[in-house]
Design brief:
mainly beta, four-stranded antiparallel sheet, about 45% strand, globular
Length: about 110
């Protein structure tokens, strides 16, 4: 049972204009800055896999996990190399996390017994 995971490296977020007519509004909408700087994907099956190193300027990683599947992951800044295992954080769906240049993420399939 393989699981596909994708990572998109972004330089940050921006704020979109919210049209509020003539009334005061303090709402804002945050969006990932486009285009993304780099991307990485893998099909996990068995052992853990680590992403490619994030490029210079990376501040956010956007992660997508195949629908209906889950993974465990470990974020690895430079000088850290923890491999994802059953004790790692679990993710299904998608998320955004703080990230940096030369950082990697280790992923492993999460199987529910």
């Amino acid at each position: 049972m393989a699981t596909t995971v994708k990572v998109f490296y972004h330089s940050g977020i921006s704020t979109a204009h919210v049209a509020a007519g003539t009334k005061f509004a303090s709402d804002s909408v945050s969006l990932l800055k486009q285009p993304y700087l780099s991307r990485w994907s893998a099909t996990l099956s068995g052992s853990a896999q680590s992403s490619s190193a994030a490029p210079a300027g990376t501040k956010i990683a956007y992660i997508q996990v195949q629908e209906g599947k889950a993974v465990t992951f470990e974020v690895n800044p430079p000088n850290r190399s923890t491999e994802a295992d059953t004790s790692s954080t679990t993710l299904s769906g998608e998320t955004q996390i703080e990230f940096g240049p030369e950082w990697t993420i280790s992923f492993a399939e999460h199987t529910v017994v």
